[in-house]
Amino acid sequence: MRFAFFTSFVRVAAFAAAAFACVQTAQAADETRLPGLKSKQIYMVEERSGTVLLAQNENQAFPPASLAKLMTMDLVFEALAQGEVTLDTTYRVSENAWRTGGAPSGTTTMFAALRSEIRLEDLIKGVIIHNANDACIVIAEGVSGSEQGFAARMTARARDLGLSRSIYANATGLPEGESRTTVRDLVELARHIRRTYPQFYPLYAQPDFEWNKIFQRNKNPFLSLGMGIDGLGAGYAEGAGFAGVASVERDGTRLFLALAGLSSDKDRLDEARRVLEWGLSSFTTRVLFAEGETVGQATVYGGDHHSVNLSAKGPIEVYIPSRDAPRLSGRIVYRWPLKAPVSEGQEVGVLKVFEGERPLKEVPLYAASAVGSGSLVSKATDALMELLLFWL
User: Fold this and answer.
1) Within this chain, do residues 118 and 240 fall inside the same structural domain, yes or no?
2) Could you tell me if residue 280 is inside a domain?
3) 1-25 per-position pLDDT tens digit
4) CA distance linking residue 145 with residue 204, whole number of Å
5) CATH number of the domain where residue 363 is located
6) Is residue 281 part of a domain?
7) Does the N-terminal peptide bond of residue 35 adopt cis geometry, omega within 30 degrees of 0?
């Protein structure tokens, strides 16, 4: 497979330099952007623009612990959306669920009684609000027949969402089995949950709930920080340390943060507070290309035109430092050769925006107009050019 990198690299770089009047070259290492990070892995994204603000060992795998419950819930939300289950569906508490995740387990539980029947809506609240392991197992066994079968669906679902580095051995995140994830996958999963299931997302910030005359508080430690945090969760794994995923919204700006490898809950909370406050207070949104504006062109082979303009669906924005704005560059990447016919609105490639050597974001690009098949002469000429370029 060959890929083409064309003149839009110059176009975006020139635009950024003019728009931001900047001569500095940004530092690529996040440690120089925000000194003193304690997290072994950290990843933070601004939601509207998709700009990556921090990325350190973002693809390095670690045990998700209770953060596996994010994927457990995503699978449940999908099942609800597909009509596979309803909120009134009831599931029976098996002995396995009771012993492994219930009162006898000594882990976080909603104290579901052995062989009782529980509505899915109550189980969902038990998982999201109270981090209950018995609720996870009851759901897994009810939906898929076994926790192992449900875990296989979780891993398959991760692949469907493009989370290629996440695997799940169970629905709870308990240490049995070989579960792995990354901070990048966790951020993308959290963004997906909020965007796709807005009716359920407020549960992550609900302070408490009462079920079966048992009052249970929200176990997410990030909510204690205030500052606009409204989800999502935390976890701890022996040998890997403390981890978490948080989302915060202030004045129309929303950030998603995942961090891992902290040595204590205090370090986790202190790091999250400092990083999120930095992300909210030190950046501003800038528009690189307005909606419908041509970003660049792609060469078309065998068409009635030799190129096609490319644009994004909506404005292309970045979230950059308010002071000492960095020099940005961009590159259009698409599979080469792009052959006619090309339909209007066809996805052709992607614009990659960089701050120095550090990737900031990727934006899909689409053909702004149609390109039909050309004459036999133009096809022959383009075929010859393609052959020459291939050997070059």
Assistant:
1) yes
2) no
3) 233 333 334 334 334 333 332 222 2
4) 27
5) 2.60.410.10
6) no
7) no
